[in-house]
């Protein structure tokens, strides 16, 4: 003992010596009355050499009831290191309860971060009420801190169980908390805030028969966020608690549950119950998953009821919610009739702009959409087949948007072929005073059924940089298979495109710009029908207005046409007029890695010449077309990073004015260096002379590239399959390639592009017009890999041709493969190549 003291004294001397440079601070005298039942502990909150100096030097000082001590610190800034804990036990069970204002006792404490703890023991037969002074409190989530570092933490303690009622900052709307039995309340004060009062008083109240009642007073437009006790942990089993909201009768309150989870109930159901003034059915009972009541006039209360939980797997009942108080909206009693009873397969969502990606700040005035006067939310989805009466609780309806979607499906052409569907926004939607953001038509069909859209009275304009859409709405069209997506383009009314035929599943999105579309008088005229299979990815039928310049562009700009995709335009030229066609660039601007890319132009008249250009050739010069004509663009797989984008324009003029016509062609956008192009040309030409190949039209299952291993399989039904393969352009187009002007008759023995009924078929089938991407990156020049993909569904050829396979049996027989033999070898090779 003596040795210990000596050691302590030595240590104290050493410490004092180490602190000798620090000026000695004023000393503190704390005197605690026995009856106050208060204990003060001053201790190190952070490691430091600074010490408390009394008779001895120490790092912690505990002052008990009845003590009278004087001390100082060995350093000048003890607030940096020391904290104070002041604990007062109040026993309301065995003695009279000291009700009234709660003081910060004792006086004269050093200014340190302090935590005052009031531990009140009370009988569960009576209620205790904590009443906060006028700045009131605001509940914060666990982990959140208060801006002024002043916080209250309130625990309820019944018997030995502690329930954390919550942590609160000053400056909120929680005015009173009533509890049953004991309470442990702590007040944390930072050293720099000279607070003189605790900010609350304690009173005794009649038993509340529940865990607690939290009262909030919301005097003006505001919002409050509250949490269930113990949040985010579980609300006690089978407990009941109530929140009371005192709201002036001229304001409206709406409740939103932002975060909740349910426990596993064995008996009873977890629920919330509302007492709403004027409601004929109090209490109104809701599930936590329900949309909670909105637009409540004046004061109301809400109770949370737990259940008997499954002992093995109790789960967690918790709730974080918000109450928003605002003035009644001018329009609150205006209901809008939305009649969707005659619509089919449609959903209409009315929502705040940016929903659901942007959650509005809690402080923003909210906009609510109501299904009935008290069922309101930030978003409301209506489905077809019903009539709705909706209203808006919103100061500014321009914050709201409508997003709608309609599905139209056709799985058997016999049921849909004759039908014409009108793709227009129903009046039920255009009549609402809400801006239409987007209306999507989802057109779903099987592989063999394609989609045709027409705009008979308005006709469509393609949105291109040279000719931008400036209408109040536009259509964005996307065609998709489960694997690929092709952005057909953006179109608006008032152009020259009469018809677009497309493959795959199509999504047409009407998007609006500005306020224009609110007016239901804006004309819409888009018709859709399902048509049998078409040969190209897209076919545009264009009938230009006289004198207007029509700009047209390949789909998927600026990312370029996908590999092997073929697109056609049919441009009608009235008898008395001529059309001038000009490409925007003089080259396609790509080099092919696999296959070849072509531009074919052909007038629709018997014996017309076909103009064919390959990717390594110059595009045709501006030219006059005397008859309606086809333009076809088909892509190869370009070398890395190169994209095929072609643009051209067409103008019409009277025939007699031929000389005055301005003809121009718009440019192809591609990325290719001159060197790359040259190299490619050299290689291709070389190969052309060495390895002549034959074009094949085939509607058998397997078509073979002469001299190349592998086979390909169709992605469609055998009997409907139209597989077409041109093996080497050098042979098919050989004679054409020698022509400098490219205007040669295309009559080559195997290759007969226009033998169908005139007008039904675009010009020359492109050599490689696959339906879907071929997943391959091999270079046919370097390595004669199989050209065809083995995956059954990976591609289909674009051309519909039949009855020609017999002519080229040679090519076919040479390497015919049993389609049932798995092409494992190829697959492995693919893997290696990629
Ligand atoms: C002081 O606290 C103790 C322990 O909680 C208690 O037994 C005693 O009654 C209290 N005294 C007063 C005056 O509250
Ligand atoms: C506490 O002690 C100081 C002297 O150390 C004395 O002056 C003071 O009166 C005492 N206070 C009480 C309440 O006993
Ligand atoms: C005192 O509280 C403040 C925050 O209010 C904190 O930054 C500081 O570290 C605390 N000091 C000690 C010694 O705990
Ligand atoms: C509370 O805990 C104490 C000891 O920790 C125990 O003696 C007492 O029985 C407990 N009370 C109840 C009601 O569980
Ligand atoms: C209380 O909060 C409001 C806004 O929430 C703020 O404007 C005001 O300054 C705060 N008052 C205090 C004393 O912190
Ligand atoms: C309240 O209870 C929680 C958890 O049981 C505990 O962390 C916290 O310190 C308690 N607060 C008071 C003031 O006792
Ligand atoms: C809901 O609570 C969980 C658990 O505390 C948390 O991870 C999640 O972020 C919360 N969500 C919201 C929207 O507050
Ligand atoms: C809730 O409000 C109703 C009606 O104002 C009232 O009768 C009831 O006592 C309240 N309940 C609580 C727990 O405050
Ligand atoms: C809406 O109707 C209710 C009941 O009919 C009425 O009390 C309220 O004043 C009306 N609100 C407005 C803004 O006219
Ligand atoms: C309704 O739409 C779905 C897809 O949204 C589609 O599969 C279905 O065929 C459509 N029904 C009708 C009758 O068009
Ligand atoms: C839209 O553009 C066309 C030409 O493309 C022009 O004639 C028309 O005036 C424009 N309309 C508006 C509203 O700008
Ligand atoms: C279109 O979508 C439907 C349903 O998702 C699917 O069954 C069908 O194969 C798709 N059609 C095409 C051509 O991808």
TrEMBL record:
Residues 337-425 form the CDCP1 fourth CUB domain. The keyword Oxidoreductase does not apply. The keyword Transmembrane applies. Residues 793-806 have a biased composition (Polar residues). Residues 210-313, 536-649 form the CDCP1 third and sixth CUB domain. Residues 101-204, 436-515 form the CDCP1 second and fifth CUB domain. This is CUB domain containing protein 1. It comes from Zonotrichia albicollis. The lineage of its organism: Eukaryota, Metazoa, Chordata, Craniata, Vertebrata. The gene is CDCP1.
């Amino acid at each position: 003992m003596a040795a210990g003291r000596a050691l302590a004294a030595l240590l104290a001397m050493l410490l004092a010596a180490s602190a000798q440079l620090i000026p000695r601070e004023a000393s503190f005298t704390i005197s605690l009355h026995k009856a106050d039942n208060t204990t003060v502990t001053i201790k190190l909150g952070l490691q430091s050499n600074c010490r408390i100096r009394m008779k001895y030097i120490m790092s912690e000082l505990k002052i008990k009831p009845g003590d009278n001590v004087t001390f100082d610190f060995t350093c000048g800034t003890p607030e940096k290191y020391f904290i104070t804990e002041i604990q007062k036990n109040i026993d309301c069970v065995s003695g009279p309860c000291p009700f009234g204002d709660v003081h910060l006792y004792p006086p004269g404490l050093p200014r340190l971060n302090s935590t005052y703890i009031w531990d009140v023991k009370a009988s569960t037969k009576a209620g205790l009420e904590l009443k906060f002074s006028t700045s009131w409190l605001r509940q914060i989530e666990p982990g959140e801190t208060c801006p002024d570092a002043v916080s209250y933490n309130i625990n309820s303690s019944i018997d030995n169980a502690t329930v954390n009622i919550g942590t609160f900052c000053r400056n909120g709307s929680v005015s009173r908390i009533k509890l049953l039995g004991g309470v442990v309340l702590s007040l944390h004060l930072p050293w720099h805030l000279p607070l003189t009062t605790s900010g609350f008083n304690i009173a005794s109240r009649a038993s509340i028969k529940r865990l607690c009642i939290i009262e909030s007073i919301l005097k003006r437009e505001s919002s409050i966020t509250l949490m269930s006790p113990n949040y985010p942990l579980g609300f006690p089993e089978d407990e009941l608690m109530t929140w009371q909201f005192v709201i002036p009768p001229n304001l409206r309150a709406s409740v939103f549950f932002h975060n909740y989870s349910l426990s596993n109930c064995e008996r009873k159901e977890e629920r919330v119950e509302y007492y709403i003034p004027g409601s004929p059915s109090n209490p109104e009972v809701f599930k936590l998953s329900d949309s909670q009541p909105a637009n409540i006039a004046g004061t109301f209360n809400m109770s949370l009821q737990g259940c008997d939980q499954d002992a093995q797997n109790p789960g967690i009942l918790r709730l974080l919610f918000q109450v928003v108080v605002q003035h009644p909206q001018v329009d609150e009693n205006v209901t809008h009739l939305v009649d969707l009873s005659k619509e089919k397969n449609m959903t209409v969502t009315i929502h705040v702009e940016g929903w659901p990606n942007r959650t509005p700040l809690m402080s923003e005035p909210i906009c609510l959409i109501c299904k009935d006067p008290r069922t309101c939310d930030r978003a409301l989805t209506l489905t077809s087949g019903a009539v709705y009466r909706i209203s808006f609780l919103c100061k500014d309806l321009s914050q709201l948007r409508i997003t709608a979607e309609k599905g139209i499906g056709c799985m058997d052409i016999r049921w849909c072929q004759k039908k014409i569907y009108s793709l227009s926004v129903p009046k039920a939607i255009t009549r609402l005073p809400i801006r239409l953001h987007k209306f999507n038509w989802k057109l779903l069909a099987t592989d063999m059924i394609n989609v045709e859209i027409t705009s008979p009275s308005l006709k469509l304009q393609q949105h291109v940089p040279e000719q931008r859409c400036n209408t109040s709405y536009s259509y964005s069209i996307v065609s998709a298979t489960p694997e690929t997506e092709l952005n057909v383009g953006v179109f608006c009314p008032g152009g020259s495109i009469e018809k677009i035929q497309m493959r795959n599943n199509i999504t047409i999105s009407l998007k609006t710009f500005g306020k224009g579309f609110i007016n239901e008088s804006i004309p819409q005229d888009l018709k859709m029908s399902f048509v049998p299979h078409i040969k190209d990815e897209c076919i545009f039928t264009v009938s230009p207005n006289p004198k207007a310049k029509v700009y047209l562009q390949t789909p998927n700009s600026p990312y370029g046409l996908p590999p092997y995709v073929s697109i056609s335009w049919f441009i009608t030229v009235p008898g008395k007029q001529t059309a001038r066609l000009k490409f925007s660039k003089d080259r396609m601007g790509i080099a092919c890695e696999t296959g070849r890319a072509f531009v074919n132009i052909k007038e629709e008249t018997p014996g017309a010449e076909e103009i064919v250009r390959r990717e390594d050739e110059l595009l045709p010069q501006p030219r006059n077309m005397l008859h309606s004509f086809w333009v076809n663009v088909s892509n190869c797989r370009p070398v890395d990073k190169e994209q095929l984008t072609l643009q051209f324009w067409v103008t019409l003029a009277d025939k007699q004015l031929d000389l005055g016509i301005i003809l121009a062609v718009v440019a192809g956008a591609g990325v290719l260096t001159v060197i790359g192009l040259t190299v490619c040309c050299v290689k291709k030409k070389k190969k052309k002379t060495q390895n002549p190949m034959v074009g094949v039209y085939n509607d058998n299952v397997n078509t073979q590239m002469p001299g190349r291993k592998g086979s390909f399989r169709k992605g469609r039904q055998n009997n409907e399959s139209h597989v077409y393969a041109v093996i080497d352009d050098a042979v098919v187009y050989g004679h054409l390639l020698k022509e400098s002007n490219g205007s040669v008759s295309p009559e080559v023995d195997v290759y007969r592009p226009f033998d169908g009924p005139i007008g039904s078929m675009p010009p020359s089938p492109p050599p490689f017009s696959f339906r879907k991407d071929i997943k391959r990156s091999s270079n046919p020049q370097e390595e004669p890999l199989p050209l065809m993909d083995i995956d059954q569904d990976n591609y289909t050829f674009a051309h519909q041709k039949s009855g020609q396979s017999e002519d080229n049996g040679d090519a076919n027989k040479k390497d015919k493969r049993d389609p049932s033999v798995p092409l494992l070898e190829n697959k492995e090779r693919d893997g290696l190549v990629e």
